[in-house]
Amino acid sequence: MEILLSLCIGIGLSAACGFRVFVPLLIVSIASLSGHLSLVSGFQWMGTYPALIAFALATALEIAAYYIPWVDNLLDTVATPAAVIAGTIITASLVTDMSPFLKWSLAVIAGGGAAGLVQSATAVTRGASSVGSGGLANPILATIELGGSILTSIMAIAVPVLTILLVAVILFFATRKVIPRFSRRAAAG
């Protein structure tokens, strides 16, 4: 049961990396330092004060950059692979009592995959918003994504199974309803 719970926490935090790469890393660092989250051997560095400072600075810079129209679209090209890597690392840092091969396979597929799916959905939405509004609506999207990253990260630690279900519903809704609608508008505009 502990393996399943740690995997749910990891996947939830990884999905949050799809909204913002560094917010979940910062929250993992804070949760580890405060004793609310245990990191596996080899990843305790994430729960140190130098890591906390680095994640806080990176988070502040990332948040600020997403509020600049068109720079946010450029940032998405870098954030997509970074989100997958961060999601993989976060999931691997939490999964315990498992062979390294299985642990890293799950981390890449489940953690990196969740981060990549969420990041791809946000990048498509932002691209369509940029085309449709000339970038004027992008700060609104940036605020929603920031809130989503913070909320998902906190929920992943507090109620991990519910978070996984919520992320699955959001991804289903996004792939079925939101992304096709924005894609049609962008093609028409």
Strand content: under 5%
**Topology as H/E string?**
HHHHHHH
Domains (count): 1
> Count of DSSP helices?
7
Percentage of residues assigned to helices: over 70%
Structural class: mainly alpha
Mean pLDDT: 90
Task: Report low-confidence residues grouped into runs of 5 or more.
Answer: none
**Coarse shape:** globular
Rg (C-alpha, Å):
16 Å
The overall strand count is 0
How many strands, what sense, and barrel or not for the largest sheet? none
Q: Could you tell me how far the N terminus lies from the C terminus, measured between alpha carbons in angstroms? A: 50 Å
Structure explained in plain terms:
With 189 residues, the protein is mostly helical. It has one domain (2-188). 82% of the residues lie in helices and 0% in strands. It contains seven helices and no strands. The protein has helices at 2-19, 22-33, 49-65, 71-94, 100-133, 138-158, 160-188. α1 runs parallel beside α7 and α2 (22-33) packs parallel to α6 (138-158). The longest helix is centred in the middle third of the chain and has 34 residues, at 100-133. The mean pLDDT is 90.
